[in-house]
Amino acid sequence: KKRVVSGVQPTGLVHLGNYLGAIKNWLSLQDLYETLFFIVDLHAITLPYEAPQLSKATRSTAAIYLACGIDSSKASIFVQSHVRAHVELMWLLSSSTPIGWLNRMIQFKEKSRKAGDENVGVALLTYPVLMASDILLYQSDLVPVGEDQTQHLELTREIAERVNNLYGGRKWKKMGGRGGSLFKVPEALIPPAGARVMSLTDGLSKMSKSAPSDQSRINLLDPKDVIMNKIKRCKTDSLPGLEFDNPERPECNNLLSIYQIITGKTKEEVVGECQNMNWGSFKTTLTDALIDHLQPIQIRYEEIMSDPGYLDDVLSEGAGKAAEIADITLNNVYQAMGFLRR
Ligand code: TYM
């Protein structure tokens, strides 16, 4: 069975971009593959954050996975920091990762520019090495993520190949190992629609947790009236009718795409239904569809959060299963890299 891993950072609230770009696409994978979904709390400290909020956000994100339909009887759900091998492998990988590769990362450049020098810790630069560790530890085949993670996935592949070449194969055999590759080289799985959900206030920038205005995103847990208000006030244009793929109308394309994905309709169906609508009636249609889609998730979320024991059990079972797989890879890498084992 192929193995699939992915994760979300517990920073801020999970929004529609995280859901449509990632979590929603995990659902069908759990029936086909061996899946591991984690909450990447160690990544969440790479920018200034509120310590008292971290554990709450971690639990909340885990509850959102479950509420969205990730099933703990099929997938392993766990917290990244609960499986120590992530940080250990990261250190080993970092010795084979040229700084130049990290300096090239678009997200590093963007985030460090926004944060200002004082707030940029070393971990923001080495963040993608930790992400590579998250993926390579599990010998993953596929990594379902939104488009903004493609460069990090490419880097993960480069690190895997480099370490395989430096320490794998015959060299590993000489160290007493099995020989062959230390890591499987994984592939990104980017959804055909929803891979880049845009901001509600600017169709040219992506929906993000860190954007200052909450008005720019729909959070999965937004109550009905908040969703209504955000869609009512979102940016539109003054051209007649509605259409996909017109570069002059990024907001229009974004809102139609959101509508298409959450209703499960085809593009043609949405064109048929909406091309002659005015913004007022489309906004009502979209608001209703969003509320219909998100309300059941919100109800399940409340149920899960009201039973902390259940959530703890899920996370502890998930971490146990994950650690078993992770330790095998980690031990192999220590061996191949020549460490004295106790
Ligand atoms: P994070 O927490 O920023 O985002 C979680 C997932 O949501 C996707 N995403 C989007 N998709 C579509 N439109 C958007 N506007 C949008 N914004 C976010 C992201 O692509 C991602 O799939 N580094 C990762 C977390 C991570 C990870 C991993 C992922 C750490 N280790 C290992 C996969 C495998 C991140 O910061 O995602």
TrEMBL record:
<protein>
    <recommendedName>
        <fullName>tryptophan--tRNA ligase</fullName>
        <ecNumber>6.1.1.2</ecNumber>
    </recommendedName>
</protein>
<dbReference type="GO" id="GO:0004830">
    <property type="term" value="F:tryptophan-tRNA ligase activity"/>
</dbReference>
<keyword id="KW-0547">Nucleotide-binding</keyword>
<dbReference type="InterPro" id="IPR001412">
    <property type="entry name" value="aa-tRNA-synth_I_CS"/>
</dbReference>
<dbReference type="InterPro" id="IPR002306">
    <property type="entry name" value="Trp-tRNA-ligase"/>
</dbReference>
<dbReference type="InterPro" id="IPR050203">
    <property type="entry name" value="Trp-tRNA_synthetase"/>
</dbReference>
<dbReference type="InterPro" id="IPR014729">
    <property type="entry name" value="Rossmann-like_a/b/a_fold"/>
</dbReference>
<dbReference type="GO" id="GO:0009507">
    <property type="term" value="C:chloroplast"/>
</dbReference>
<keyword id="KW-0030">Aminoacyl-tRNA synthetase</keyword>
<keyword id="KW-0648">Protein biosynthesis</keyword>
<dbReference type="GO" id="GO:0048608">
    <property type="term" value="P:reproductive structure development"/>
</dbReference>
<dbReference type="GO" id="GO:0009791">
    <property type="term" value="P:post-embryonic development"/>
</dbReference>
<comment type="similarity">
    <text>Belongs to the class-I aminoacyl-tRNA synthetase family.</text>
</comment>
<keyword id="KW-0067">ATP-binding</keyword>
<dbReference type="Pfam" id="PF00579">
    <property type="entry name" value="tRNA-synt_1b"/>
</dbReference>
<dbReference type="GO" id="GO:0005739">
    <property type="term" value="C:mitochondrion"/>
</dbReference>
<dbReference type="GO" id="GO:0005524">
    <property type="term" value="F:ATP binding"/>
</dbReference>
<dbReference type="GO" id="GO:0006436">
    <property type="term" value="P:tryptophanyl-tRNA aminoacylation"/>
</dbReference>
<dbReference type="InterPro" id="IPR002305">
    <property type="entry name" value="aa-tRNA-synth_Ic"/>
</dbReference>
<keyword id="KW-0436">Ligase</keyword>
<dbReference type="InterPro" id="IPR024109">
    <property type="entry name" value="Trp-tRNA-ligase_bac-type"/>
</dbReference>
